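For the sake of transparency, this paper describes our internal protein records without simplification. The remainder of this section carries one protein's record, kept here as part of the documentation:
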Amino acid sequence: LFETVLAREQDKYTGGRILFVECNAEDAASFHPQLAEHLDCGIDFLLLDHLENFAATYETGSKRYIAIVTTFFHYSLVLQTLQPLGLPIYGVVTEMSAKSLDALRHYEPGARLGVILKPSHSIQYLVSLLTVVRDDLDIRAATSDEAEAAELVDWAQVFFLTHPCERLVLARRPEAEILYFCDQINAQSIGI
């Protein structure tokens, strides 16, 4: 009980805590320092898969938040599930880092680029974006379905994917060159 009261008192003087909701631990770990750089408060992480449980137990739990933050990929679901808690819910924009975009410049024309994403609705967006940057690459895509992705994993020279798909590629190609889709938070979207 003392630790709970102490934590609440500390939160009053440190700007409170924000809950960041993301679909995988790798992105949460990557985005955490980016959020911390711009926000003057503590940041906790919740996996998207645990939203329902969090919503059901928040009122009786020991942690309190001043806001909830998620990426716009998950904003609708987070809003629908957690809005009844009465906390403000903010979305942030994610984008490809300069490192990932710069890597595209170094591939020879015709290089085989494999795109594998868990959310299939994002595949066409990423393929279109990559094609705008480099229309001379051979780009093919698959979902994270293991059977669908197997041929692509064997074919591609380099991969653009989301963190949940990384294991799928590395299981077949441990030496694979991997770049990540939406691997940074747009700093301007944090300030909105």
